[in-house]
Amino acid sequence: MTPIPPQRDTRRLRRRLAPAALLAVAGALLAGPGTASAAAPHCIDSAPGEQKCTYRVPITVAPYEVLQTTSTLTNQNTAPQFDGMVTKMETDIVDADGTPVPISRLMLHHIVFLNIAKSDKTCSSTMGWDSRPSGLMRERFFAAGEERAKMSLPEGYGYDINSSNAWVMLYMVMNHRQATDSAYVEYTATVKTDTTGMTPVEPYWMDINDCHVDPYYNVPGTGGPGSLDVVSRDVTIQTSGRIVAGIGHVHGGAKGLTISEPGCGNRQIAVSNPTWGDAGHPFYNVRPILHEPGPVNMTAFQTEQGIPVRQGEVVRLNSIYDNSRPHTRVMGIETIYVAPDPGVTQPCGPLPTDQVNLGADTPGRKDTPEFKVPLTGIDPSGNAYTITEKPKKPQWLPGGSTIRVGDRWFSKPTVEVYRRKSLNFQFSGNELHNLTLANGPIGIASDNLDGDRSFNAKFDRPGTYNFFCSLHPVQMHERVVVKKKKKKGKKGKKGKAKRKRR
After folding, report:
1. Residue 174 Cα to chain centre, angstroms
2. Residue 280 per-residue DSSP state
3. Cα 83-86-92 angle, rounded to 5 deg
């Protein structure tokens, strides 16, 4: 991907506090270390001094449910409980026999692995799924989304684990059928048990909307043909070392991610580029669709020599999206792995000669495809379908009006307002809900809210805004028709409208 100057169209986002249930379990996990097992249950010897371990966590997802939850991995049946270094990780949803579950049944929208025993390098506390402060952030060391990203560290490097290993897995799964479905979240970790001569790595989670369990942001889509939306996040390196690997995550509409060094002439040091599925890929054809479909692959990078970074140096993540049309609830995330090296003392040291991008040859589209997210309803038989019928006549509302949002409903589902006016959405249900643009003139989406908290949406462009709740996508829809004000008639010299003489 062509380097993009991060200062162009850049909007600085203030670091905020962000998860939740993690603080509650941290004390218990740290108090009770697991028991090391020579037999290493769920593991096989994959090479001399190396074991490949596979673990499964059962899940049950209700019809058309968006399941967002956490699982603690604190014993030898759910996580490796022995000394070693993780060199590879990958994850998927499978049936009991290990067969991958098709997206037409269940989709793993994202999954994040956190190490309870360690604090996070880029975020101290978190904003929970319910958009409320929710405690300490623990170390995020691996994540995957729809593209099924994989951790793959270069030879000689690994992520330290031991017999008191305590992890948490946070994940979101969508059921695309009208029947309750059960399966397993499976993950596989390759662990070096003979760590002679190996170097440990420290993960740095780089995220545009960091410290949030739901770290989305919105691309307005108002820039015109060929325009870009570039948002940046700076991270400070805590210990001198070398960046040896990185994996990225984006949503639909993305052009890619770059990593640069502002203090070194803003030189680009790494990229992560998307590959998109063909038009017939299930990502584009399942219903409901919670956000514009993401890529089928993101390139990762590796280098045994490593990219030198000094303590205190700033490394910048640049998330680059198309801005000619709206994209809501997007993400820009890159996890980099830094091997501490006190020998790195030179500022802006020479870049490695062995850096490679993995996955660039994945089949699919390289150009960012255009896709219109549809509204999805349920027919009398309980099946999901794309809503194509015209909405009922909208109810006129003056600017500043309030629309109540309850459990599975909007109080005024089809309304009309003037351009440049705003509407207030008050979330008064017992469950969490949000407002998310499926398609329309400007990208608008809210946090997950309840407890009479409100979200104010301003409509600066005329047109029809089709919204849904991304947590209850087949049940909750809202249409806002925005019109220009009619111009008043021309007036005569005395201030009266001109009339045609008889």
Report:
1. 14
2. T
3. 125
Task: Name the one residue in this structure whose structure tokens are 């502002």.
Answer: 262
Query: What residue has token string 């995550």?
Result: 249
Count Cβ neighbours within 10 Å for each residue of 383-406 and write b for 16 or more, e otherwise: ebeeeeeeeeebeebeeeeebbbe
Q: Tens digit of pLDDT for each residue in 54-110?
A: 999 999 999 999 999 999 999 999 999 999 999 999 999 999 999 999 999 999 999
Check residue 288 and report its DSSP letter.
S
Beta strand pairing status for 300-309 and 356-358? antiparallel
What are the structure tokens assigned to 134, written together? 């929710």
Report the alpha-carbon distance of residue 495 to residue 489 in Å, rounded.
11
Q: For 152, how many CA atoms within 13 A lie in the half-sphere containing its CB?
A: 13
* Nearby residues of 64 by Cβ (< 8 Å), 6 or more positions away: 175, 176, 177, 178, 288, 378, 384, 473, 474, 475
Q: What tokens appear for 164 in the block?
A: 């008191």
* pLDDT tens column, 117-169: 999 999 999 999 999 999 899 999 999 999 999 999 999 999 999 998 899 99
CB within 8 A of 428, min separation 6: which ones?
404, 405, 406, 450, 452
Closest CA to 442 of 325, 322, 319, 320: 325
CB atoms within 10 A of CB 319: 30
Q: Quote the pLDDT of residue 40.
A: 84
List the beta bridge partners of residue 233.
317
DSSP tally for the chain: helices H, then strands E? 1, 37
CA pair distance 301, 258, nearest whole angstrom? 11
Q: What is the DSSP string of 67-108?
A: EEEEEEE-STTTS--SSEEEEEEEEEEE-TTSPBPPTTTEEE
Closest to 107 in 3D by CA, of 152, 172, 24, 167: 172
CA-only gyration radius of the chain, Å: 25
